[in-house]
Q: What sequence folds into this?
C-alpha cells in the first residue's frame, strides 16, 4: 500500500518536456488553466483542439506540469521552480554540447526549447522562474508566443524575459486583440515581435496596412489558420513572413538527430 501511494505521488507530480516534429523540445501547460487572455478566435481555432493534443497521455503531461509548477511556486517561489526548470533544460542538451562549449563552436543541432507548445504565462511568479532559468542557461535558445500581454503586471515581467539575448517573445494577435497588441509592441521597441493568427483574407485585410506600417523588418510573422486539414490561403504582403512549416515548405521531422522545421527556419528564434 505504501509503495502504491508513493507511485501515485510520483505519477501526480513531475515536469516534462515534449519533443515534437515541428519545434523540437517544448514545455506545455493546460490551456484552460493558463491561457488567461485567449481571445474567442484563439480558443476556436487553436491547434490544441486537434486529435494529437487531445490524447489522454498528452493531457496528463500538461496537467502534471501545471500541478508541479503550482506546488513548487507555493513551496519555494520562482527560485525553486527555476531550479527544476534548469534540470529539465539540462536533460535535453545536445550530445556534443560540452565539446562545442569548450571549443567555442555551435552544436550540430541547435539547443532550443519553446516555452509553451500549448498554454501561456498565467502568473508573474511563473514568468520570473523562466527568467531565472533563462539567465542561468544563456546557451539555450528560448522562444514563446503569448496573449498575456493584456495583463499589465504580466506584460512587465514578460518584457524582461523577452529582452534577454537568448530569448525571443512574440505578441500573438488576431482581429480581437489587434490594437492592444500594436500598443504593447510600440511600448518596447526592439524587444517584442508580432505573430498574426491569420484567418481568412477578408477578415485580416483591414489590419494589414497598420501592421505593415508598424512592424519593423523581420518582426512580423503570420500563421494561417487550419480548417478541416487545410490552411487558409496565406496573405502576401511586404514585410509579412508566413510560417513555412504551416504551409508545408518545411516538412515535419520525427528523427531527433535532424533539424526540426522551427530550428531549420529559425525566423522565430532569438
A:
Amino acid at each position: 500500500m505504501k509503495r502504491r501511494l508513493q507511485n501515485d505521488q510520483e505519477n501526480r507530480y513531475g515536469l516534462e518536456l515534449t519533443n515534437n516534429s515541428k519545434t523540437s523540445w517544448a514545455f506545455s501547460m493546460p490551456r484552460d488553466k493558463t491561457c488567461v487572455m485567449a481571445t474567442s478566435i484563439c480558443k476556436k481555432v487553436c491547434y490544441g483542439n486537434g486529435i494529437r493534443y487531445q490524447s489522454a497521455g498528452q493531457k496528463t503531461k500538461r496537467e502534471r506540469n501545471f500541478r508541479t509548477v503550482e506546488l513548487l511556486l507555493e513551496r519555494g517561489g520562482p527560485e525553486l521552480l527555476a531550479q527544476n526548470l534548469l534540470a529539465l533544460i539540462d536533460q535535453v542538451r545536445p550530445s556534443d554540447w560540452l565539446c562545442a562549449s569548450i571549443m567555442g563552436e555551435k552544436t550540430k543541432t541547435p539547443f532550443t526549447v519553446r516555452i509553451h507548445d500549448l498554454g501561456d504565462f498565467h502568473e508573474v511568479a511563473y514568468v520570473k522562474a523562466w527568467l531565472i532559468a533563462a539567465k542561468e542557461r544563456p546557451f539555450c535558445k528560448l522562444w514563446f508566443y503569448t496573449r498575456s500581454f493584456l495583463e499589465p503586471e504580466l506584460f512587465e515581467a514578460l518584457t524582461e524575459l523577452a529582452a534577454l539575448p537568448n530569448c525571443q517573445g512574440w505578441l500573438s494577435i488576431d482581429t480581437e486583440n489587434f490594437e492592444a497588441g500594436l500598443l504593447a509592441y510600440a511600448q518596447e521597441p526592439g524587444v517584442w515581435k508580432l505573430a498574426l493568427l491569420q484567418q481568412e483574407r477578408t477578415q485580416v485585410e483591414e489590419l494589414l496596412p497598420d501592421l505593415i506600417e508598424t512592424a519593423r523588418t523581420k518582426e512580423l510573422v503570420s500563421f494561417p489558420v487550419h480548417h478541416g486539414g487545410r490552411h487558409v490561403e496565406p496573405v502576401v504582403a511586404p514585410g509579412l513572413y508566413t510560417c513555412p512549416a504551416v504551409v508545408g515548405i518545411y516538412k515535419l521531422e520525427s528523427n531527433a538527430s535532424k533539424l526540426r522545421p522551427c530550428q531549420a527556419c529559425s525566423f522565430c528564434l532569438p
Summary: The CA atoms of residues 5 and 159 lie 42 Å apart. Residues 14-265 form one domain.
